[in-house]
Amino acid sequence: MTTTVLCAPGSGARAPSxxxxxxxxARRSSALRLLVLAAALxxxxxxGAAPASAHAALTGSTPAQGSVVQSAxxxxxxxxxxxxxxxxxxxxxxxxxxxxxxxxKLRDLxxxxxxxxxxxxxxxxxxxTYTVAWQAVSADSHPVSGAFTxxxxxxxxxxxxxxQQEAGGGVVGALYxxxxxxAYAGFVVxxxxxxxxxxxxxxxxxxxxxxRLVARSWAALTAATIVMLLLRTPYTxxxxxxxxxxxxxxxxxxxxxxxxxxxxxxxxxxxxxxFVAVLFGAYARAQRDEGRAGSGEGRTGVEGAxxxxxxxxxxxTAPAPPAAPNASDTPDAPAAAKRRKDLTFGLSVGGAxxxxxxxxxWAMAEHASTGLQTAVAMxxxxxxxxxxxxxxxGLTALLASLYRxxxxxxxxxxRFSRLAFGSVLVVVATGVYQSWRQVGTWQALTDTSYxxxxxxxxxxxxxxxxxxxxxxRWTARLGEGPAPEAEATAVLESVAARTQAAATDGPVSATDxxxxxxxxxxxxQLARQRAALASARTKRIRDADPERSGLRRSVLAEATxxxxxxxxxxxxxxxxxxxxxxxxxxxGGAGQSADANQPKVLNxxxxxxxxxxxxxxxxxxxxxxxxxxxxxxxxLADPDGRTVDVPEVKISFTLPDKDLGPLPVTLDHVSExxxxxxxxxxxxxxxxxxxxxxxxxxxxxxTETRNVKIN
Length: 711
Fold this sequence. Notes:
Blueprint: H1 16-46, E1 58-62, E2 68-69, E3 75-80, E4 84-85, E5 91-94, E6 106-108, E7 115-120, E8 128-138, E9 143-152, H2 170-200, H3 208-236, H4 247-254, H5 257-279, H6 282-295, H7 333-363, H8 374-404, H9 410-438, H10 444-447, H11 449-477, H12 484-503, H13 505-518, H14 520-543, H15 546-573, H16 578-586, H17 588-591, H18 593-597, E10 600-607, E11 614-622, E12 630-637, E13 648-655, E14 660-665, E15 668-671, E16 674-680, E17 686-695, E18 701-710
Parallel strand pairs: 2-9
Antiparallel strand pairs: 1-3, 3-7, 4-8, 5-8, 6-7, 8-9, 10-11, 11-12, 12-16, 13-14, 13-17, 15-16, 17-18
Helix pairs in contact: 1-9, 1-11, 2-3, 2-7, 2-8, 3-4, 3-5, 3-8, 5-7, 6-7, 7-8, 8-9, 11-15, 12-14, 13-14
């Protein structure tokens, strides 16, 4: 992003000596602002985890994942890394046939900082493998889900269905993500565009392109909020798009913290609609009236009272016929100025309240509302969002003015530069704090997926800063007045316009006189033609300025890289933050100690295709951990459960993620149908792949593979 400095055509150009004298100071100022810009982008990078989600994670369970207990437990408990919202259907325990066996009533077992929930089980559950499927909404409004198994007595085959996709995924998740970021974009442009008009360039209240920009941003934010509210039910539960029409689910959503935040945002947007109407209605008229009163004319130039209604600059230098002064048409100057000041004060106070309220709807339901120092994090998050909106939204409004509106005065751009500079300082301070909350340590940048994505984003930001430097160079080349090429084009356009007017003075005046007054349609057509010609002349004059064209190309390149940065940020939103991942690893020994100390048990059916080639292999890996010797036991049984011997069996382990293996295991034949191995070394934790080869004859052989999680 860059803050451009342009001048209104018609102001005098500085002498070459003055330009040379001011060059060192301009270079020092540009370097200082470029350094602050780089710091701001890095702060936004690390704190750009702001929209990223701090998902809750399952840190432990009883019984543990994959464990075998001697008798059926009274309940199943789940422990999470942070607060979650759960209901009676959030935890389901399924028997080997897929039938739900829990009591259907959630137990709240939270105490202090421990977040624990349970589901009661009936007594007398038969032996076998049970599946626990759970789903919750983390405190930052994002859904999380998972499933694991445990066995009573001994493992068995299970046909329990498991969720086909994670909570918050699929089409619904994609739509919700799009709506969420449209909401962010709408908020940024709405707040920043309004601030640009009130603080930097009041005349922009009458620029058509700025009006459309702010109004469309309000519409985008409103539509995205409504879509998010309707999608909350399928997003956090079933994942079925048809559930957007579930009124019962919508009622439940309204009782949650994210639902309340979305409803509050809609109410604030109603107030924002009134704000926008006054800004581009009464305030724009007051700005126009003050300009008319100051000049004593019904129409004034761009920098006096405002802009032409069409948003195009009339570049013809032919003098317009002076309008006859009319006391009734010329507003009183003191009254007009007082009215504009009163409106400015009212809009500033009201707009600030609405903007803070809108930012708070994110802070109260997103990552800032959970985790460390929430009392500090929420106000900091509000400041961060407002600073980003003022900076980037104001820049968007400035670009709209430069590309589609009348010339922008140098003083207006200087005011925006000062406003953007202050916003950048706030972004830096709040971004550093947010990065500390989300990442925690330098090591987490390289040891976690979240940190690695941040490094990718950092590389893109470096490219963005380099492009911003080129934009600053183009900006420095812009002088006080238009470029010589633009001046020459303006003169040629003016001469051509005067020649055309002189050549067509007779016929046009005859047509545009009483006939035009008698034919309003003809008069309107002529007015549109004049406006189109004026707009075309303005565009040709602007395009003749090489510095301005170079600046446009540079800004376009910045915008392209910014789109890629936004794509990386979108991926970050579905990635577990580094601090949360580190916390899960830290409590892994305590929260999952039962899982870590229980042997890994795999029951693998096989069929070699030959006579007596069917059976089941049971593999026990004790304790199923990396970095220590594991004892492995392999038992083979026929379909009737009797132990059987086979000519040959082989077992090996492979870790595809690390390109490790296959690591063969040397098996000793202990007894009929029983093989064992000691000191089986699995060097690193992860999702290993066990490969079992069973040969029942010289030609009948089969290879079966299973995944096993090593802690």
